[in-house]
Design a protein that fits this description.
Pfam families: Aldo_ket_red (PF00248). GO terms for molecular function: oxidoreductase activity. Keywords: Oxidoreductase. By secondary structure, the protein is an alpha/beta fold. The protein has a single domain, classed as Alpha-Beta Barrel (TIM Barrel). The chain contains ten helices and eleven strands. The strands form three sheets. The protein has a seven-stranded parallel beta sheet. A two-stranded antiparallel ribbon has the order 1-2. α1 crosses α2, α7 packs across α8 and α7 runs antiparallel to α10. The radius of gyration is 19 Å and the shape is globular.
């Protein structure tokens, strides 16, 4: 099946596949990197109409952009390519910090273009908001990249509502990427209404709760080296994990009624939140990609949505989404 398209943003609209592909895990964080599998998964995604690809310079670091560039080399014209800057890392992986300085924005973009092997980026995000640099300065530098033809559209990631407003006043913002799923609903109070008021699309990352909502994760299932088994992700620890797996069981019970997997139901729920919402579930395996794509054909009735609301109340998940939330913009 080939999936449909959706349009992110109305002031600066970008049409993309209704489901994207997060490429991060092909290179880092979730177990062993899988270069060949990643290439095969991207090629299969394009075959299925999943043409909205998401990467970032920090993934690897740097190697994920190279992988994506290799995979799309002969198919660039059919891809909506998104990457990010701002989480500065050294080649050995050392984290330097968040950097939104204009000179860094320009240098990071040029480096990403080189690694990707392309002459422009379709959607360029600030990965995290730099608290030490006014957002107007960062977005001003990003706007220069649009004027230079290096970038087509601008995005933010994990930005607070007031930051989004200030950024959008400098140059139209096409999309906000932030965590959103049945397990992460905090943006619904303030951020999502702001996006809709301004005509900005939403790109949820981790729409499957970092895999929890697939139903495939147990206390014993995470491989050695998987960052989810560390304290960095409290939802996967101890009693939090037990409580969250119980929520997954409740999602599975509803999914069984639809002859779907828990992950497909969770993705269908995100897709049902609006035509301006385009989730980017990540995977490095073709079979999981195909499972995710099938979720786009799953139509949820009001009864199903109500059942999910009862099964997973908005504040039901146990644990913060990050052990250290200091990098998340919380400007009031």
């Amino acid at each position: 099946m080939n999936i449909s398209t959706r349009t992110l943003g109305s002031t600066a609209p970008l049409t993309v596949s209704s489901l994207g592909l997060g490429c991060m895990g092909m290179s880092e964080f979730y177990g062993t990197p899988a270069h060949a599998d990643g290439i095969a998964t991207i090629h299969r995604a394009l075959d299925l109409g999943v043409t909205f690809l998401d990467t970032a310079d920090m993934y690897g670091p740097f190697t994920n952009e190279q992988l994506v560039g290799e995979a799309i080399r002969d198919q660039r014209e059919q891809v909506q390519l998104a990457t990010k800057f701002g989480n500065e890392r050294l080649p050995d992986g050392t984290r330097v910090g968040v950097n939104g300085r204009p000179d860094y924005v320009r240098a990071a973009c040029d480096a990403s273009l080189q690694r990707l092997g392309v002459d422009h980026i379709d959607l360029y995000y600030q990965h995290r908001v730099d608290p030490d640099v006014p957002i107007e300065e960062t977005v001003g530098a990003m706007a220069e990249l649009v004027q230079a033809g290096k970038v087509r559209f601008l995005g933010l990631s994990e930005a607070a509502a007031s930051t989004i407003r200030r950024a959008h006043a400098v140059h139209p913002i096409t999309a906000l990427q932030t965590e959103y799923s049945l397990f992460t609903r905090d943006l619904e109070a303030d951020i999502l209404p702001t996006l809709r008021e301004l005509g900005i699309g939403l790109v949820p990352y981790s729409p499957l709760g970092r895999g929890l909502l697939t139903g495939a994760i147990t206390r014993e299932s995470l491989p050695s080296g998987d960052s989810r088994s560390s304290g960095y992700f409290p939802r996967f620890q101890g009693e939090n994990l037990d409580a969250n797996l119980a929520l997954v069981d409740a999602v599975r019970a509803i999914a069984d009624q639809l002859d779907a997997t828990p992950g497909q139901l969770a993705l269908a729920w995100v897709l049902a939140q609006g035509e301006d919402v385009v989730p980017v579930p990540g995977t490095k395996r073709v079979r999981y990609l195909e499972e995710n794509v099938a979720a786009a054909a799953l139509t949820l009735s009001e009864e199903h949505l109500a059942a999910l609301a009862r099964a997973v109340p908005a504040d039901a998940v146990a644990g913060e989404r990050y052990g250290d939330m200091s990098s998340i913009d919380s400007t009031s």
